[in-house]
Amino acid sequence: MMKKYTIYICILLSLVSLSCEKHIDGKTVASYFRAERRLYMTTSIKNGPGPDDFTTPEQWLIEPKGGRFGQPVVLLTHRQTISARETFALAMRTSPQVTTVGDTTAGAFSNLLLRELPNGWGYSMSIGEWRAADGSSYEGIGLPPDEVVQNDRADYLSGKDEALERAIELLR
Length: 172
Known about the structure:
single chain, alpha/beta, 3-stranded antiparallel β-sheet, disordered N terminus
């Protein structure tokens, strides 16, 4: 007797180790998960001394690529998910098949202006406003996951990863 088997194809992306150094990198990857063009964020650069002195917002759109992957995707995030990795998470969240699992991101979306003080100490400042498509700003607070699963120190030391285990459960 022949049994029928269902084959599941799914993707688990971890922003723990994903190399995403530029905002455009995440936009490019996310384009393989969308069927239609979609706004995912806007950016405005500070251009004057006043509190409202910013450039006209630039729209960041996901332009679908051929061969869209429409199966379930779980994206792992944590407190060290920062900058371009955060904007990648914003872009991926526009796809209905994507679920984010883990902890809230760092909340440092904007590019930085780096400076050095006379004593050699360095500091950085945000150069603008990075906003989600709905106008929300997650700067300073981070992007919350769909499912919060926080690993504690004991888990880390014992080699257990609760967020990864939950992601695998969701993909089964």
